[in-house]
Amino acid sequence: MKRIVVSWTVLLLCLNGFAEEKKEKRFSFLFVNDFTYQNNQLADENDQFYNLSTLFLKYGNWSGGLTLRSHNYYKRLPNRTLENSQYDLYRKHARYATKSLEFQVGDFNSMLGRGLVLSVLQNDKALRDRTVLGGDFRYNAGGWQVRALGGSVEDELKRQKWHVAGGELAGEYWKGNRVGVHASYIHDEKTLQRRDDRLTWSVSWSAEKLPGGLSYYAEISRLNLLDSRLRDGSACYSNLGWTRRNVSLLLEYRKYRNFNNELNNPPSADRGDEAVELRDSEAARLYVQYSFFRPDIVPFISVGRIREFDATGPQAYGGVNGSDVWGKLDFSFSHGVRETYYPERITEGRVVYRFTDPVAVDVYARDKRSSVGEYRFNEIDYNLQVSWAPHGAVFFQKQYSRELIDDRHHFHSGGIRINLKRDSYFELSVGETRGGEVCSSGQCVILPPFRGWRLGVFVTVR
Amino acid sequence: MKWLAWLGPAVLVLLPALAGTLPDFSLPDINGTQFHARDHVGREVMVISFWATWCAPCKQLLTRLDRIKVQYPAIRVVAISIDDSTSMVGVKPYIAGKKFDFTVLLDAESKVISMFDPERKVPVTLVVDKAGSIIYSRTGYLPGDEREIRRVIEGLNR
User: Fold this and answer.
1) Which residues does chain B have within 8 Å of residue A298's beta carbon, measured at their own beta carbons?
2) A413 touches chain B (CB under 8 A)
3) Considering only CB atoms, which chain B residues are within 8 Å of A357?
4) How many distinct helices (H) and strands (E) make up chain B?
5) Beta pairing, strands A132-141 & A122-123
6) What is the per-residue pLDDT across A399-448, written as a single tens digit (0 to 9) for each?
């Protein structure tokens, strides 16, 4: 451990030597190292480290990269320290791309259509880091694109593995209107709950720029379980957008039934920090925003109905965003309610005030409340950050949670971030964080609480 | 296998310092038109900012870049959204509401951001000169960072 820390300290001191920019158009490289050391008092062994070293190279139409990982805990299981440190070639890829042809092998993220049939993407907030390890081929000609991909997907804990093949054909058929056919075939190799092989396919229609400021997207899909007595799944997602002068309007509708193929993540038609129920749900909403005042004040409202199984209720949120008001102030405020089986309320606010450049204060607060019968749940976060750009910032966080009437917890943490040259920084924080459920882009993860201190060093050289 | 932990620093020392050029990439914009980076290198100064609708500092930065664009209309601001299928639908209303004079691209599969930051710590901001060299890059945003971006662009216009 000491050797790793010393070697990176030497590296940081050497960074100034790479400050000169060189001009060479055909060749470029990027090196990123992200190192975290933490003393986690809630883990079975306190000393933990996680290091990712990534090298990306590009020459002409060719590019490639590899990521080496060394760690003694998994980001999704931070309270369990591995007995022995592990080292592996975490990611690797090679890619050839021209205007009409693209081919890549190795690890890649992938989405077909709007994610109804396949969506293997990174989601940092939900700590989901999956890639397809295989090959991906695309060919574009005359406004049409054909794509084929295949490989395996493994979760970061190496507990689940799927084989997947997929493809799509999409193109413009009439004056900016596009049509696409998308399909994926999934076979479980190692999963927590083994399921039959499944074929998911969809047809989509879309236009992004029609006369009068109109745009639309519609996709209908089927999930066919092969050799199963279970019911096949189905899905439908559509939206209609309209923009005129200061007003934007978006109408969204979706309906999903038995539609979880393990590797898809369809649009939610909801706040991004809510999980999408794929077994049986339906939602419709209208989103409207109006901007006035220059530079910017934008009130917005989203109203709709949502059904999950047999529970139906409202989903609505609204608020106002302002930016660069009097050249000194950014703010946002929103309040939302959502009710299916239980009511949930989220209130969020943020104010950033720049006293005198470059000193600024950023205050953020979020209050989330829900209740089921007598059960009351309340989470409140306060963040305060004072920054001095571009050199760094100090920050303080207070979190509060109350799950039952007598079960209240307060968590305090704080730290400092110092920016080094060329997108490199180190950050030191100490204290307690709450953990709990974190949702992003419809995907959720339960994080354990943390108590201790953490040092992060992020270095980029290009 | 512990030698792997040393490999990162060793690579840095051994690599020739030929870095700092914009890799070529192509992505669809929010109107469905394909954007090819190579078509713009050599013609204009570009400010590239990776952002997402769920990222508050990213949106603060875009507002600052809008002011810079007003001040220096000849530069091209390329805002690359890494929103996925669930949040992508919010990109267009957000941009339309703000009336940004930006080129807005969609990188849902993280193909392009992984060329600049494999861990997608948005916002990532780059200033690319006419020769295609990256002359400024920053991961993250602190209020006031825009002064440095403005200074870099002023340096190019001298």
Assistant:
1) 97-98
2) no
3) 144, 147
4) 5, 7
5) unpaired
6) 988 876 557 789 999 999 999 876 889 999 999 998 888 888 888 888 88
CB burial string A324-337: b at 16+ within 10 A, e below: beeeeebbbbbebe
Q: Which residues of A touch B116 (CB under 8 A)?
A: 30, 462
Distance of alpha carbon A76 from alpha carbon A129, whole angstroms: 10
According to DSSP, residue B38 is labeled G
Question: Quick check: A29 contacting B, CB < 8 Å?
Answer: yes
B61 to chain A: nearest residue by CA? A323
CB within 8 Å: A11 and B9: yes
Q: What is the largest CA-CA distance in chain B?
A: 53
A360:B84 CB<8 A: no
Q: What is the pLDDT of residues B79-122, one digit of tens each?
A: 999 998 778 888 988 888 888 899 999 999 988 998 888 888 88
Q: What percent of chain A has pLDDT over 70?
A: 93
Best residue in B91, B105, B114 to probe A by mutation, most A CBs within 10 Å?
Answer: B114
What pairs with residue A380 in β-bridges? A367, A400
Helix-, strand-, coil-residue percentages of chain A, each rounded to 5:
5, 70, 25
The pLDDT of residue A294 is: 66
Cβ contact, residue pair A461, B19, below 8 Å: yes
State yes or no: cis peptide before B123, omega within 30 of 0: yes
A296 and B8: CB-CB below 8 Å?
no
B46 to chain A, closest Cα gap in Å = 15
With residue B65 as reference, give the H or E element that holds it. helix B56-71
Q: B54–A389: do the CB atoms touch at under 8 Å?
A: no
d(C-alpha B36, C-alpha B116), whole Å: 17
CB-CB contact of A426 with A414 (8 Å)? no
Of the candidates A180, A120, A119, the residue with the CA atom closest to the CA atom of residue A147: A180
- Find residue A98's DSSP bridge partners: none
Q: Which of residues 122-141 of A touch B (CB under 8 A)?
A: 122-125, 140
Please give the torsion angle defined by the CA atoms of residues B30, B34, B35 and B37, in that order, rounded to the nearest 10 degrees. Answer: 150
**A145 Cβ contact partners less than 8 Å away, ≥ 6 residues apart:** A138, A139, A168, A169, A170, A171
Q: Report the distance separating Cα A174 and Cα A26, nearest Å.
A: 38
Give the nearest partner residue to A287 out of B36, B93, B131, using CB atoms.
B93
Determine contact, residues A438/A17, Cβ cutoff 8 Å.
Answer: no
- Cβ A366 vs Cβ A380: under 8 Å: yes
Q: Which of B113, B12, B7 is nearest to B58 (CA)?
A: B113
Q: Which residue of A has its CA nearest to B148?
A: A390
Mean pLDDT of the A74-99 span? 92
Q: Does A336 touch chain B (CB under 8 A)?
A: no
Higher pLDDT, A96 or A461: A96
CA dihedral B13, A93, A130, A29 (to 10 degrees): 40
- State the Cα–Cα distance between residues B27 and B32, nearest whole angstrom: 9
Each residue's pLDDT tens digit, A269-296: 887 778 889 999 999 999 999 988 766 7
- Write the pLDDT tens digit of every residue in A349-379: 999 888 876 788 999 999 988 887 777 888 8
Out of B6, B86, B138, closest to residue A442 by CB? B86
Query: Between A and B, how many CB-CB pairs are < 8 A?
Result: 267
